[in-house]
Structures are given as structure tokens and as C-alpha cells.
Amino acid sequence: MNFMYKMERRFGRYAIKNLSLILILCYVAGYILEFAAPSFLINLTLNPYAIAHGQVWRIVSWILIPPNESNIFFAIIMLVFYYSIGTTLERTWGAFQYNVYLFSGMIFTVIGSFLMMGFCYLFRSDMMNGIIIGNSIISSESGFFSYLSLFFSTYYVNMSIFLAFAATFPDNQVLLMFIIPIRVKWLGIIYGAFLVYEMVSGIVAGGSLGFVYPFVIGSSMLNFVVFFFTTRNYIRMNRTQRRMHRENARRVRREKQSASSKIAKHRCAVCGRTEKDGDDLVFRFCSKCEGNYEFCQDHLYTHIHYTRNGTHQ
Question: How much is the pTM?
Fold first, then answer.
């Protein structure tokens, strides 16, 4: 039985319904904050150093940091698009499975930020004491990690949602640039190739900060890798199909149990009667027969004894 199915049966009632809408509302709130008080957003970023020093709200508040999009028109299109594919996935997978996918992506991102901090302390401790970024000199650990926290956002979480959609509905078509029809699986492949390119180019062009990209991109996309390698067959079934699958499994188990119950446990070696031929029948083994020969009460003392080779004596 699939592990995800077991988890859904136990914890499915706690799933948050319409999670895509909640995520989109968080983005809207983030865009409003970015417009009204851009300097305040730095207090909400995923900064592991600040979290370790008591600012625990950052574990959740970084979700308010919206994907970087300066054009309001394209931002609206992006929000509508991700809401559409998110709700489609939720209807297909079920609320619990969709919750697990999104929250695991966020949890992996938080873990990735702390792994990045550990990497900095082990291999980049010299950078935290003085590094030039642009025209500014960062000379403190808090400032260094505050800058690195800007790399973490929900952008790659959105990318993982689209990859999930492409893997679940590979033959669906969308209009590229509102004109060109293209299957979603090809867009998914393009997205995946772009992520690999972005990671490699970030490592090469990022210079001394290139190490950040594997932690940012890799941790955010780990939910897609783990989730689909462990549930790639189960994931394509919608809730109705999963219910039919469960009912079929129960039916098969009942048939097996029924078939096993019809197999007789006792059989008389003389007359062939079993315990199913009567509730009053009693069966015993004969101590004088060589072998496992069983007899009913009518033939226990009247039969001819058997030898090893099956002959009577």
C-alpha cells in the first residue's frame, strides 16, 4: 500500500482546502508591501542567521516575498496562471496530497537555507568578515546573511508547482505567448533545462557567491524530485480512481480470504470426508500408520494401516 495513501487516511482531515488561493493572497500581500514599504521586506526574508538569533517568524514570513516581477500586468497573469494549475492539481490529487507537496517544498527550502549557513561557516568563514558587493562593503555576519537571504523566495516553489502539473498532465496543451499551442510536457522539459542552466550559470557567474545557487534551487526543487520518484504511479490517479483502487484491493483480499476458508483442513484418508461435510465429524491421526494419514471417527479404528510407500499392511 502506498505510503502517501496511508498518510492521507490518517491525517487527511487536517488538509488545508484551496491552498493555492491562500498562496496567491500571500503574494498579493507581498506585492503590496513591496510597493508601500520596500525596506520592511528585509525583515521577512528567509535569513537562517536571524532565525537562529530569535527571529523565528522568518520561517514562515518569507512566503510573503513574491516572485520578482516589475510589470504589474505580467504579475497578474502569473498569479492567475499559478492559481489555475494549483487548483487543478488540488482537485486531481486531493487537498492532502497537494498540501504535502507545497509544504514539503517550503520545508526543504528552509532546511536548504540552514545548510547554506553551515556551509558558509565551514568553508566561507572569511567572507563573513568582509566582502564587497556592488559598491557596499559587508563586514558583519548579520549583514552577510541578510544579503544572502534575498536569494530565497517563492519563485522556485512556483516552478515546482508547474513541473508537478507538467508531470501529471503531460498531454495537456497551453498557448505559448497566447498564440502557439504546445504540450505541457515540452514546457516542463524546457523549465527543467532552464533550472539546470540557471544553477550552472549562477555557480560560474556568481563568483564567490556562486555556491548559493545549488542551495536555493536544489532545496526548492527537492520536493518535486522526492515526491514524484516515490509516488509517480500513484500521483496520476485522482480521488475517484484512488477510491476505486482501494475498493478493488479490499475485494481481492475478501476473495482470497473466502477462497482460503473453503480449503478443508481435515480429510479422511478412507472416505474423503472433510470437516465441511458435518459439524459433528471428528478427525484423528493414526499412530500406527507410517505417514500423516488422518481418519474420521468412523474409520479411525477400522482402516488398514499404511506404510511409508503408501501400501496397506
Answer: 0.68
